[in-house]
Amino acid sequence: MRRTLFALLTSSLLVRAWLPDNAPSSASISAFANSGTSKIRGVNAGSQYILEPWMAADVWQNTLGCGEAQAERQCVETAYNGDMDAAGAAWQKHWDSWITQDDIRQMVAYGLNTIRIPVGFWMKEDLLNEYERFPRGGFNHLVKFCGWASDAGLYIIIDLHGLPGRQVANNAFTGDYQSTTGFYQSDYESGRAYEFLAWMTNQTHTNTAFRNVGTIEIANEPKREDSGDTQWLVQHYYGSAIDAIVQAEEVLGVADAGRLHIAVMDDLWGSGPSPSTALTIPQLSRLLYDDHNYQFGPIASAGNTPSAALTYTCADTVGQGNRVDAQTPKVVGEWALKLDMLAGQEVATEENRAFFESYFAAQMDMYERTRGWVYWSWKVQGSADFVDTLQWGYLNAVVAGVVDADLSAMLAKSPC
């Protein structure tokens, strides 16, 4: 009831932030006209600035020489002996080649209109201390990258993917693979996050390369549990992080029409109390809810067959394929074709190709009942089977003929 009340209250307010359907004059989101829809249709720039070894094995081994290191910090410490400048020089080769300006143009040619860019707090280099080892120079490249995306007319979501102190353990997407988390209930680590968010907000409003940034996400995929850590996240961090962004905009005198949406993971992620629990009505009015829906686990439990996958995806039950609930506006910020039942099978099998076309179209159909979707990820480097590249990489799936470059034609294939 409380969540529904908040939704009703916020829906009655003038939301002081922009999405593509009410873009300020400073933005140039021509990719929406090209895509023929007001819905967000996008991809994540996965492994561009926080590199996950499973997504880019050749880069990890041969371009960067990271060997058995599990994440970027561990690679800098072991392969570069903590020399962040030397690591930055090596990483520059990766930043320049993983997603290029030609890739950005190809996204638009494929009918995509949005890009979500995962970044780490270390892009603001003065937040580092002597105990942290991350490659230097990423922010300079991010400026160039966002300039390409803005020139191409893409809507941009900047996602704080790697938080100070790590928000989850043993995961390369934090940039720092360790068995503990130091972010939660820490004034020091959360303070560095607020500083990053205020700084990033300032950049989006003062540097024309960032003119199409409409959303900043304040914490990607925190712990999925109800604990003291996630209660602190909801009751303390979210409100303070929102305030850091709002206060930065107030100092700059940003008009309501040009203010940023602020993304948080939605209730369906399962990080303790609802993210709305401790927020004021003005804070709630700034939110864009981010829903990550990877279905391979639930579908395995539902029978692990193609028919079970489509039935699950097309179900009206909120929390399956249907992601529409009281939390709005919402975008499905990560999803994929990953399914365990066809692991290792070649895409060339016509039966598999037809199923995955239907499965992609079904998810697309259901997620466009929200504000839209952002696929994980633009590309994955690896073998030509469904285990990695074609189930996780959007470009890979288009090139293989699984996903139609004409997304309107793709949507028409939905069995839902």
From TrEMBL:
Q: Does the keyword Glycoprotein apply?
A: yes
Major localisation: secreted
Q: Where is the signal peptide?
A: 1-17
The UniProt function text for this chain reads: Beta-glucanases participate in the metabolism of beta-glucan, the main structural component of the cell wall. Acts on lutean, pustulan and 1,6-oligo-beta-D-glucosides.
The entry assigns this protein to a family as follows:
Belongs to the glycosyl hydrolase 5 (cellulase A) family.
Query: Top-level EC class, please?
Result: hydrolase
Where in or outside the cell?
A: Secreted
Enzyme Commission designation: 3.2.1.75
Query: By what name is this protein known?
Result: glucan endo-1,6-beta-glucosidase
Query: PANTHER family this protein is in?
Result: GLUCAN ENDO-1,6-BETA-GLUCOSIDASE B
Q: Which residues form the Glycoside hydrolase family domain?
A: 93-380
Annotated SUPFAM superfamilies: (Trans)glycosidases (SSF51445)
| Lineage top rank: taxon | Eukaryota
